[in-house]
Each structure stands twice: as C-alpha cells, then as structure tokens.
Design goal:
4 copies of one chain form a homotetramer. Chain A has 7 helices and 14 strands. With about 250 residues, chain A is an alpha/beta fold. In chain A, the strands form 4 sheets. Chain A has an 8-stranded mixed β-sheet, with helices on both faces. A two-stranded antiparallel sheet of chain A has the order 2-3. Chain A is globular and about 50 Å long. Chains in contact: A-B, A-C, B-D, C-D. At the A-B interface, β3, α2 and α6 of A face β3, α2 and α6 of B.
Chain lengths: ~250, ~250, ~250, ~250
Amino acid sequence: MSLRWGIVPAAGRGTRIQPLAFSKELLPLGTWGDGARERPRAVTEYLLERMLAGGVNRICFVISPEKTDIIRYFGARIGEVPICYAVQQNPGGLCDALFSALPFVAAADEICVGLPDTVWYPVEGFRFLPDGRFSFLLFPTAKPELFDAVVTDHRGLVEEIQVKRQSPASRWVWGAFKLTGRDFSRLHELWIERRREDEYVGTLVNAYLAQGGTAAGIQRGEVYVDVGTLNGYREALRVLSDRSVIDELAS
Amino acid sequence: MSLRWGIVPAAGRGTRIQPLAFSKELLPLGTWGDGARERPRAVTEYLLERMLAGGVNRICFVISPEKTDIIRYFGARIGEVPICYAVQQNPGGLCDALFSALPFVAAADEICVGLPDTVWYPVEGFRFLPDGRFSFLLFPTAKPELFDAVVTDHRGLVEEIQVKRQSPASRWVWGAFKLTGRDFSRLHELWIERRREDEYVGTLVNAYLAQGGTAAGIQRGEVYVDVGTLNGYREALRVLSDRSVIDELAS
Amino acid sequence: MSLRWGIVPAAGRGTRIQPLAFSKELLPLGTWGDGARERPRAVTEYLLERMLAGGVNRICFVISPEKTDIIRYFGARIGEVPICYAVQQNPGGLCDALFSALPFVAAADEICVGLPDTVWYPVEGFRFLPDGRFSFLLFPTAKPELFDAVVTDHRGLVEEIQVKRQSPASRWVWGAFKLTGRDFSRLHELWIERRREDEYVGTLVNAYLAQGGTAAGIQRGEVYVDVGTLNGYREALRVLSDRSVIDELAS
Amino acid sequence: MSLRWGIVPAAGRGTRIQPLAFSKELLPLGTWGDGARERPRAVTEYLLERMLAGGVNRICFVISPEKTDIIRYFGARIGEVPICYAVQQNPGGLCDALFSALPFVAAADEICVGLPDTVWYPVEGFRFLPDGRFSFLLFPTAKPELFDAVVTDHRGLVEEIQVKRQSPASRWVWGAFKLTGRDFSRLHELWIERRREDEYVGTLVNAYLAQGGTAAGIQRGEVYVDVGTLNGYREALRVLSDRSVIDELAS
C-alpha cells in the first residue's frame, strides 16, 4: 500500500522575521473555531489543513535539532494523520531539508510539498495536482520577482523556473508541488551529481527539465502570502481578517 | 545603595489562551522600530518598556521551571538593565509567584510590579507612583467587573479592592503597583499568617488595609488591555494599529 | 525495496531512576574510542551499536513530546543510518510506544526492537534473529523473576512469556526481538481488539500465540543488564569496566 | 541584613567533555541517600552541599541562555535556600560569568564562589574562610601545573597566582574563594580598567594584589578533583566509590 505524504520543511532559521521566541512556523496567525471554543492557530496549521484537504495520510516535518518546539506543539498527529520528524543536521537550504525526508518515503508514495510559513487559497489546492507525476501549484502574484516564477508552455508543462528574476516572463509563482517518491529520488540523485549546490528548488528543477524530466504547472492557485517576513505577516493578518480581500488580491 | 526593581510574574500557565507553542508572555504583538529595521515585539516588552521608563535598574522575572523560553528570549538584560530569574516551583497563584522574588530584594529597595500580558498607557505610568509607599496605578475601564476594581477615598487612599465583583463601586482597576521591599515583606508575612490562601493580590491587600496598612490609588492610567485572552489579544492589535483608539477607550 | 528498521522506544518517564536532568536514555555510560579522542557515551548508543551491527538501515525513535533532548543529541543519523522520530502523545506503556512507529513501516520491512536503557552482549546479537519471522533474542539471567521469562519448546518456539512471575519456568529472558512489518501490524490489530490493555509486550505475545501465531526464542544472548535503575546502572558500570565479568555473569 | 551568597558559574560550554546531552554541571556522579531511597546526584550538588555547609542563604547560578536544563533541574531552591539565575549573554570566560551575578549582590554581602564541575573535601571547607575579607581555599595537588597554583607568604597572604605554569612554586591550588560584595565590586572595576581581558581569575587577582589588594590563602583543603574532563570524571567516580582513597590523594 502506497502512502500519501505531506513533507513540511521547517528547519530554516527564520532570519527574515527575528527575534521570535519560538520557531517561525509556530507564529500565531488567526484562529481555529475549535467546536465551542476559538483558539489560536499556528501559521503552519494553514499548510497542514491544505495537506489534509489534499488527502495526505502521513506528515513528515523536517526540523533542525534545535527546533523541537515544533514537536512539543504538534506531537504525534494532526487530526487522524500520524506525524514523523526528520532532521536536517546543518543549515543547507531548502533542497537539503526536503531530501532529509527522502529515506522514509517509498518509490510508489505520493508526496505533497508546501512551505510552512505561507498561507494560500484555495484550501483544496493540492487536489488539482494529479497523482503519478511532478506538478506545481501556481499562484498569480503582483510581485513575481520576489519568488520562483514558473513559465509554462501551451500544454501547461513547465519550461523554466525563473528564480527571483527581475521582470520574469510569468506572473505565476509556485506555492506547492507534488511528485512521486520515484521522482523525488531522481531529483535527489541529480542534486548529488550537481554537488548539492542547489539551495532552492528552482535551479534544481531547471536542471531536471534540461535532462528530459517533465513537470506540470497548474494555474489553480488564487492567493499566496509569504508570512516569513513582517510585511507578509501583516498582509496575512489582513487577508484573514477580511476574506473578501482575497478576490482583490487574486484578481 | 538601594535598587529599583521591576518584578515580572511570568510563571502562569496561560490556560486562557491555549494552545500556544511558547510562553504566553512571548506572544508577538506589534513591532519595535529598531533603528533602521522593524522587528517583532513580544507582549512583555510593553511592560518592560514601562518599567524602564519608570526608572527601574534591575528586573526580576519569576518563571516556572518549564518556561525557559523566556530566558532564551530576554537573556542577561533589557537595554542596560540586568535581569535575574527567580522560580515559582509549583503553580500557586500570583501572590506566591511575586513572593518568589522576595529573597532577592532588600528592605530599602523600591519595587515596581506589573503583569506581563497587559498593555497600558501612558508609557510613563510608573512615574506617577511615589517612592517610599505602597501605591496602585489605576485605569478606567468599561468592564471593571472582570478585574480588581479599586475603591479610593477623597484623599486617594485605597478603601477596598473589589475582586471580579458584579457592579463594583468603582470603574477604576489596578494595572500596576509600587511598594518598598519593607512593605513587600510585610505583605509576605501577612500572607503566611493567612496560610498562603490568597491567590490574587486583591484579597491580600484588603487584609493588609484591615490591619492598618495604607495604600494609595493613583488615577493616572488611561488605557488598559489584558492580552491574556484571544479577545484581549485582538483588542490589543486594534489599540496598537490605531493609537487614536486610545482616547476613545480612555474616555 | 524493503527497509530494515531499528525501533527504539524512548518515551518512558524513567521514574525508576529519578531525578535526572535529562532523558534517561541519554545517561552517560562508559565511552567511545572516537578515533584519537575518547568521548562520553549515552546508554542508548549501546543499543544503536547493536542495531547497526544487525544491519538496520533506518532508525525510528519513539519519544514523548517533551523528550526532545534525544533529538538534539542524535540528530539526523547515527553513523550512515538516517533517524526519524515518532511521538507517543501520552504515556501508555511499551506496546503503545512501539505502535507509534507502525505508520511509518511497510509490511515487507524487517524490524529490530530493543530497549534503550539496556546493555547486552554479544554486540552482534541481532544477527542471530532470522529474517521473515518473529523471534526473540534470549539472555540467561540469575533473576528472571524481574523480567519477561520466555519458555520455549524443544524446537525453540516460544510457548509462553512469564511476566515478572515468581519462580518462572525459564531463566531465559528476552532482551530484543525482530519481526516483519506484516507481523507488527498483526500484533497491532490484536492489541486494538484487546482494547489496548496490554501495556507490556509479554501479555500481548501470549495472546498472539493463543491465536495461532508463532515466535522463536533464540538463546544466543550472553549478558543482559537493565540500566533503568540505580542498581542496574552500577552493574553496567561494573560490566563495562571489566569485560571479564561478562563470562562470570553469563556462566 | 546582609546576605551570604553562593555564586555558581555554570555558563561554560563544557568543550572538554563532549558530547553530553545536557549541561555538564548536571552530570550524574554518585548518589544521595535521600531518606529511604537512594537517588542520582548531579555533580553540581557537591558544590551546593559545600555552600550550604558554609552557611550561604542565597544561591545565584550564572547560566548561558541555552543551559536552561539547570533551571528545570534545580528550580526555586536547594534545601531551604532560594536560588536565582543570572545570565552570561555570550561566552566570555570565568570572570565575565562571575560578574554577571554582581548586579544582584549588595556591598555588605558575603560571597562564596566555587566551580560546579569539581568535587572537593572537606565538605565544610567554606567555614575555614573568614567573613569580611578575600580568601582562597587551597588544596594540595600532585599536578599543580594544570591549575591555578597559589603562592603564599609566611603569614598566609597570597603573593601570586601562577596560572597553569610549568613547575609552579606551590603545589597548593585554589578550589573555592570567598569575598565581600565590596571586594567583588573592586575586582569588577579593575577588570573593566583592564578592558575585560582577564578570562580567568588568576591574572585578575595578581593585578589586584599589585594594586595593593590583599587575599589570604587558607591551606585547609584536602582533596580536589576537576570533573570537567573524562579523566577527572573517572577519578571522581573512584574517589566517591572508595573514600579511603581520599587520604591517599591528600597525603
């Protein structure tokens, strides 16, 4: 039986939003209506909600050895879904963090990846990403130069990821992706061949495409907010306090 | 040379605003303009700012043995003022927490006490409290029945503290107080006599007054927000985003 | 490709050896000759050494949410073997702890289980346990009434586990075991049927045998020391300081 | 009323005995006979026992912001003596650590200082150090070149401290000292004048003597073991397991 994993890279130091007294993934942002009682919500719970809506049945957090407040907070499971924790021993960028989860994933498993300090809509976004292939969930944004802009062809296949490039050729940025364990291993092998030099996902995927790999870009995202900075945090507070703002941002 | 202490009772479990991944005293609330760079601000930093404005030259946090994130966050000092940490071994209410700091204070020292999950104005409030005597900084509030309402006579002396009483005789509640180490010791002895049964400050002070002790109520507070609940947290966000709201709340 | 897991249940509170300032699994015990330099060794490193000698290629620690010092100490891997961490949310005994790792194991995987506060010889003990079936590594002991004594028939199959029974019918106690992911799942289903009432492994295995399950008892252990008590700790210090004592204990 | 402080510098990183899963001051070493039940003993509890035997009524630990396991372990008090915690913000040597406690000490207070990773005899050693003056408790040792050897004149006054010098002129090393808050402040001022360059106590005291300060060397120590290295740890285990060895070491 193959599993459906959600991998949550949460090992980063959060230097863009310091000092915090805790891991930036645990920043309170909005609330849950928890039955009769409202309670604070950690920013990562937005991503977890989306992963659960997308059908994942296992979560793997990748943490650094010091960020154990994440374990104390989330513990054994989220809803009914069991959580395990892998460790990125030393800071080494997002690719290295993601591959820290690879040893625990089987080739036939499906893997959903998202960033724990982002809030995006629609909640069911992962459902637009098909099983069995590598695909990115794309979001329209007014400032694609701050992110990984994804250029797709007429069939929806990714041609190039433009990493924080001035005046990129697309205003669509990726906010989440999905792939099989097999493709995850292929990416890992490629990363090793490239001497582990890719810190972020974009350049590694470009190399993967150059080798003949394919990936789809699915333009079904609506709103994407990076909460990892103070400005993003404030924007997220605004988005959450007035959901009508979503249409405005997404338009 | 006598010292001017700020005592910060931060040992409570924060059951009114759970779950948080960290001590509730470290909840981010607004920002500091830190020279060139804005940075997040922990709620307790509002109280510390007020203590520094009031001239304290030593801070003593009282924490529980588990709330060590407070030490990692604040460390050795705030500004130029050295911090030490006392420990309340077991949950035992606010009085017990405060008296955990008593062994480190001398009779001639001045002591400012405030609550770390509150935000109040004016920032220089402690300056209205005189040296050498026991006095409370009072704030007008629309819902005094939720707090300790302080009834004063025509000279400004406290007659009674009405603890969470329906329809209290005063709309002024205390938000901070100041006393000498000598009076702090007297309160402690009285608390021991009363078998440590006073959990909160109000009932103990009433007993102190009944014994012939005196305390002044200084009606110089303007705005008082209890951030220890979700509703208070939201009110604080509102207060901080629009300082004009202060006059409204204070009127 | 099937994996070979070592599962390390490290969620217990260690009430038999308190107070310690850290998780009892991290108690220093002897040293490693670490190339040029000798360094302290945590008691769990004895079990991990035996798991590595037995060929495991993945480690899963089961911890409680508070025992995060284990993650800070071991981090991402031991030698070349990746570690992941599962969480036992609430104290619930050894069976519950072990099954917290089950969601991350595949049916075809092999699983080695040992106790992190024990030291036993020979180091290569796990190699005596065959793939593809449920088997226990048995150790002779002078006080089998303190442990799970394992009664085997003439073919070496387990007939009964006598849990802390006065005058047990065997002086052989189990110190480690091995089984497939498939059998691990069967045990879990049985445990659920029995309303999760088995706290320790012995009674659950007896029920498994009663249902027609089989397990082998392999009498290849030589020395077994339970380090989870002060007396055991001292015995372990003695064993390690004079390895000749092993023959004495094992005889 | 003046206080009698015990200051425990526990902010060091313990690089001589790594890796440990916890602060080196919490290394288990021997046991307490705790009424009916024996329990493990942290190495620092030897120093605390000696401070209590010497009459201290306040303890100040100096920790680094990360070494909060010390607070979880010791909490609010040891026996009846209240503990507070000061913080050394950045690693800066022993002098800097000690002076982190200075803001909480009054001029008239007496201060006992010892090192938390040492075990020495006799237990009542601090009682040989008089009130009102600066004095060192000296221990005979076979390897004074590893420590601070203290040269005294015929009246018992310190002439010089020879820091880790080959073939020092004395085989007596200091293991603890006592001074008033006033002298502690004088040392601090001198340290500031010398640009905070003294990392260890010996060179600072030599400068103090050169300025006309005086200190006594009291040769009443018997056994001194530095537990901060693996070899010292083993020697301490030997000393504790066979107290007769003390006479041998002390002779």
